[in-house]
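[step 3/7] fold_predict: job queued, chain A
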Amino acid sequence: MAQPHNILIIRLSSLGDVLMSVPAVRALRERFPDAHISWLAEGSVTGILAHQDFIDEVIFFPRAALTRHLRKGHFSTTAHILGDFLKSLRKREYDWIVDLHGIAKSVALMMTARGTRRIGFGKTFAKDMSHIFYQERVNGFQKRIHKVERNMLAARHLGWADAGPIPAAPLLVHEDARTYIDDFLRSHDIRPPFFTVNPFASKDSAFKRWPLERYADLIGRIRRERMGSVVIIWGPGEREEAQRLVALVGDNAQLACQTDIAQLYALLARSSVYIGGDTGTTHLASAANVPVLSIFGPTDFIVNRPYSKNSVIIRKEIPCSPCKKKDCKTRECLMTISSDEVFEALRKIPLKDEA
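[step 4/7] structure written:
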């Protein structure tokens, strides 16, 4: 196999899926240390990708700006932004373009970029008929495998043959992020052990959320048992609900400071245990090597669980789960998980500072 000089990785979003792609990209870096590796992504995740030493270049797809100006009818501005992006995308010719996203948009970007080999997933994993556009297809024998393992199939297809453990996926963050979090913890007198709690999911994924009131019950138990402090973390559009949870628990929890992804990673890395659902922040905590307790409902835990030996999954084995029924009326898979059950599982987890 000819050694590649330039590799383009396409995994646009979301945070969790990007993080579950990191081990495969690290594997390619290990296999081809002299190659120039670029990563095409969108949104806030590009900020933390740009700080990683296994990536040489991050190409930012300005989806939010394009959508905003298009909706406002600013067609010339939209065209200008798109033109600048396409010029940036095409400035380098790639030996390999590896599409780890597998949707229509990622295929369109792959076809726009200049490349010799175009690699993506076969019909088992690809969406939007994207598999028909690849010159080389990466296939698997079963669909229900973890996304980290699925992405590693692509790394192995391209020459990563190490039979050992899948590369670890810790992230680098700038010193300013750590200082920002240290200042927050110091100013609120938050000392180890402390628990980070994330009751939220992305805007379109509210059906995956355990009830806020049960998080409040759980936090109350943590504080009554004097296990440690509790910090409630939140993201864009979630502050109001986070404040409502703080109001439910009174003085038993502290609202986290506003954070970007790097700062959130720094906060998670300092915590003793992280508690949350199926969301990108859960994978960020896993990357930070923090003990993770994750509450799963309708989504497939085999495919989406935190990829860490240092994690515990709470879920119910019911006939209709997993599913993608966002308008489910009963949400039995989540409503049958009690705060007592989660608390008992939490008590068995060795705290990070004690492990």
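[step 5/7] annotate
The chain has two domains: 6-157, 175-347.
The chain has a mean pLDDT of 94.
exit 0
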